[in-house]
Amino acid sequence: MKYMIVGWNEIAENLARSFEYRGYGYEIYTQNISEVELKKVEEFEIKSVEQLYKSVKNDSIIFLLKTELDKKIDVLKNIKKKSKGCKVISIAFQDETQKLKDHHVDDIIVKDELVSSSFLKKLDDIESKSNSERIADIVEKSKKDISIFLHNNPDPDAFASAMAFEKICENFNKNFNTYYSGNIGHPENEIIIESTQIKMTKIEEGEIKDIIDDSDMLVFLDFAKPGSNNLLPEETNADIIIDHHRTNKDVKQTGYAEIRTDVGATSTLMTKHLLNLGIEISSILASCLLYGIKVDTDNFTKNIFVQDFKMISFLSAIEDKDLLDILESPPINPDTVSALGEAIVNRKFKDDSLVAYAGKVSEKDDIPQIANILSQERDISNVLVYGLLNNKIYMSARSKELKLDIGKGMKKAFSSIGSAGGHQHSAGGVIDLSVFDSVEDAKDRIEEIFNEEVVKD
Ligand SMILES: [Mn+2]
């Protein structure tokens, strides 16, 4: 028998019942059978510890649940004498752990921690539920329109969060509008908007005051600071803020502000709120929330926390597989394909770097897409793609080199003639064509600056 429980008490009984429920085979042993309440034993077969020493094998897993330390050590010594390969997990108080370790226990469950961590978990649950209830309460009390604001150039995390918040508004039969500013580039974003039919209104600076005056309630999603990366006047007070940006941690607001640094995306927080409030999550919404978390955590690899994983495992069970597949590899616009063709023909190599001119492009978003594709070429570590639109040169750079920070490199190298910057592996920039004598001159200079200053040696 693989699983062996030693000691007979409440924990042993619960463990035995769990094994029973899961259909695991187990045996129970105790040192002092006479002390066991007969009533309890009727259900379980309990053997003496001497029998355990005879049947323990190298693949046995023993749960040592006796209460007194001396007895635990006694049993532990005997078991390990019989079989070195078996595993013994013991329950113990913090101050007993060292002695058990001295006698080669394999693992310990600390009793005091067990209780406090269970209480803390309950505390988290209660706090999370009361947060959701506060949001629901504020929404329910709103009399006129609820205005949901997203940051400039909203991303999938922002869209998905808005869709989730709209569900809360719908749940209480409230009117709502979602507003954004800037642009919605990227084919994935267009797919999300098309397939979800989310209605978002693009606003300009001049309209914002009227919208605020006409709204009963203001909601900021995926941002917290009015006036920074959004069109809202700095003194605007939101009724509800839900955000996860570390930089906004100290933003002071009078309303409900949930700015959490222990999650990777606002979509994680919104998923939890919908769950807490018992609001149904459709498969399309689940896909969008999942995609929001995916993008913000760089494919579930960076800035991701326990709560994100919990929500991911929940959302993956209901996601729309087809929608997520299209989001992963969206169809490419014909114009982008033409620009890609141009870039492929024009690419110039130097060591493991590649510079490619994509010609005139119809959208500036073509450039990063082409850079992503070209950076997949084997043996290429650094890529710069640039193209012309409205007398401006748009650049996008990618690097797989660990020692190079392409964002810093681009910023430094191009700052005297334009603006550039970004992250360690990906960066962008823009330069006025008027800086150069001609397009030919621009091509020569950009290639030279990238090779000589950004990716030098
Ligand atoms: Mn976000």
Features:
single chain; globular; Rossmann fold; alpha/beta; 457 residues; six-stranded parallel sheet; binds manganese (II) ion; Diaminopimelate Epimerase, Chain A, domain 1; inorganic pyrophosphatase (n-terminal core); 3 domains
Terminal Cα span? 63 Å
Q: How many domains comprise the coordinates?
A: 3
Helix percentage:
40-55%
Question: Order of strands in the sheet with the most strands?
Answer: 3-2-1-4-5-6
Principal-axes shape call: globular
**With helices defined by DSSP (H or I, 4 residues minimum), what is the helix count?**
17
Could you describe the largest sheet, including whether it forms a barrel?
6 strands, parallel
Strand content: 15-25%
Work out the radius of gyration.
31 Å
CATH fold-level assignment of the largest domain: inorganic pyrophosphatase (n-terminal core)
Mean pLDDT: 92
Structural category is: alpha/beta
Describe the overall structure.
- This protein is of the alpha/beta class and 457 residues long.
- 44% of the residues lie in helices and 19% in strands.
- It has 17 helices and 18 strands.
- The strands form 3 sheets. It has a 6-stranded parallel beta sheet, sandwiched between helices.
- Helix 5 links the parallel strand 5 and strand 6 (107-110).
- Helix 3 runs parallel beside helix 4, helix 8 runs antiparallel to helix 13 (321-328) and helix 14 crosses helix 15 (366-374).
- It starts with a strand and ends with a helix.
- Residues 157, 222, 244, 265-266, 296 line the site of manganese (II) ion.
